Amino acid sequence: MDKVIGLLSKANPNQANQPDDGTPWYFKYGSRALGIIGAFFCILFGLWNCLSILLGDISCLVSGILQVCVGFAVMGVEAPFCCMFIDHVQTISKKVDEKPTWVRGALYCILAIIPVVLCPGLGSLFACGLVFGCGVIYGMMGLGKKASREEMAAAAAAQQQHGSKTAPGVNLVNNAQPIAHSNPPYVNTV
User: What local confidence, expressed as pLDDT, does residue 150 receive?
Assistant: First the structure.
């Protein structure tokens, strides 16, 4: 297990000098591993979708090309050592790592939806689903750590002291109008 964690930590040398934000280690390494595996399958199934040109399906060809591009982009960000032959991959990976994790999550989710919309096949769903899952995990990491039980109880007690005697969130819409009943429409029976 230590060997796998060592390889994943070498996948991005910029991660070592980031401050500890309280994210569990299995989220950090799990999201990175899911991104690398998803990128590999995106490239593989993207090439498979590109073979649809033999059947004349242009939308699947475009989807396959986009899927390969998504795979290389995610692989370049998650594991820049896999793309050493491309110039400036380390600088791009470093810039993405400096951004909040929710930005990476939103980017992965958006990039994963486009090929599936163009060609909703099993290869697109599986590969882009892995990248989408990686984006969801990064989004969860961006939300931060859940509050402790005592902090949540104190927040609920403070809300009840301010005069809220109903369930939380009932008064979200203060200007709601009552539903009016109208007469049935006039029907001409001539």
Answer: 84
